[in-house]
Design goal:
353 residues; alpha/beta; Rossmann fold; Dehydroquinate synthase-like, alpha domain; 2 domains; seven-stranded mixed β-sheet; two-stranded antiparallel sheet
């Protein structure tokens, strides 16, 4: 079992616990009688025994998929919570992947001006990334996650047992974010040196799957280290957005249908690394290692069928844009990235292989 703490203020901590079977002992962490479960249609069918732990009237089921991470779903959850008389001492439990976690977390942050939140991620991507760090929100027609809040879960309960039902596509999706952590590890100023990039490069795919719990712990520790130092993205935390300005533009242009978030991030890593190479920030040897690692997991295999000008226009709508300039994180050394705000558009266009 691994416990990671993020101290969010003088009196509150967000606790991340990675432990097989932890979902079977919910009463140690949640007053189930005072909890509302937010999950999706797929998980409700996959885990009926888990869902049945909660009062039927307090189970809120949303549709499964990124395209449902919208204002309509937010309104539905809020209405269900209020209709069933949620109180300030109640808990919203987000049970699912990134969509359920982000949108349930956002609703918990605004209903009654904030109630307790617990995250129980069920996908590898959510376990390694989205359930940790307090970012919540939903997508708009103008871009991904452009509406939201910072709101930390009191507990993030990570049970690797849920990965037993994870399909290959979802596994590959998560590897995009995990490679991101490998590429920012030195920039994260994490106290422990994990050498995640080398670990992923040296191990076979089957060996990586056998050690997936350890990879979850490493990814969670790197993210927690960054968030602890910069909770509200004032500086260091921006490194967690490495490759995401590219990725979010791809997701918007595909209407959240043609690729998963992790796949989009993998393409973003590929193009940000090409930009780093073109700018002379990294050498060809490191660039080739990055591409080799992406290829190893079958990520970003094809040229994207989007107009380059359209991609750049969508990148300009990203929430990290300042003074109408696209701010991009670029690899500068092995496992380190830096933020640049003065990159000319032709260079960004040239990075889109």
């Amino acid at each position: 079992m691994k416990e990671i703490l993020i101290k969010t203020n003088d009196i509150h901590e967000s606790k991340i616990i990675v432990k097989k079977g932890i979902s079977q002992n919910l009463s140690e962490y949640i007053n189930i009688e005072k909890a509302f479960l937010v999950t999706n249609t797929t998980l409700k069918k996959l885990y009926p025994d888990f869902v049945s732990k909660f009062n039927k009237k307090r189970v809120i089921t949303i549709k499964d998929g990124e395209k449902y991470k919208n204002k309509k779903t937010v309104d539905y959850i809020l209405n269900e919570l209020l209709k069933n008389k949620i109180e300030r001492k109640d808990t919203v439990v987000a049970f699912g992947g990134g969509v359920a976690g982000d949108i349930a977390g956002y609703c918990a942050s605004i209903v009654l001006r904030g109630v307790n939140l617990v995250q129980i991620p069920t996908t590898l991507l959510a376990m390694c990334d989205s359930s940790i760090g307090g970012k919540t929100g939903y997508n708009t027609k103008y871009g991904k996650n452009l509406a939201g809040s910072f709101y930390f879960a009191s507990n993030v309960l990570i049970d690797p047992c849920f990965l037993e039902t994870l399909n290959e596509k979802e596994y590959k999706c998560a590897m995009g974010e995990i490679i991101k952590y490998a590429m920012i590890e030195k920039s994260s100023k994490c106290e422990e040196d994990y050498n995640l990039f080398e670990f992923l490069s040296e191990k076979s795919s089957s060996q990586i799957k056998d050690e997936i719990e350890r990879i979850i712990e490493i990814s969670a520790s790197i993210k927690a280290s960054v968030v602890q130092k910069d909770k509200f993205e004032g500086g260091l935390r921006k490194i967690l957005n490495f490759a995401h300005t590219y990725a979010h533009s791809f997701e918007v242009l595909s209407n959240y249908k043609k690729m998963t978030h992790g796949e989009a991030v993998a393409y973003g890593i590929k193009y940000a690394s090409k930009l780093g190479l073109d700018l002379g920030k990294i050498n060809k040897e490191y660039y080739d290692k990055i591409i080799s690692l992406i290829d190893k997991f079958g990520l970003a295999p094809n040229k994207l069928n989007f107009n380059k000008k359209d991609i750049i226009e969508k990148m300009k709508q990203d929430k990290k844009v300042q003074d109408k300039k696209i701010n991009l994180l670029v690899p500068v050394r092995s496992f380190e990235v830096e933020l640049f705000d003065n990159i000319e558009e032709p260079l960004i266009e040239a990075s889109l292989l």
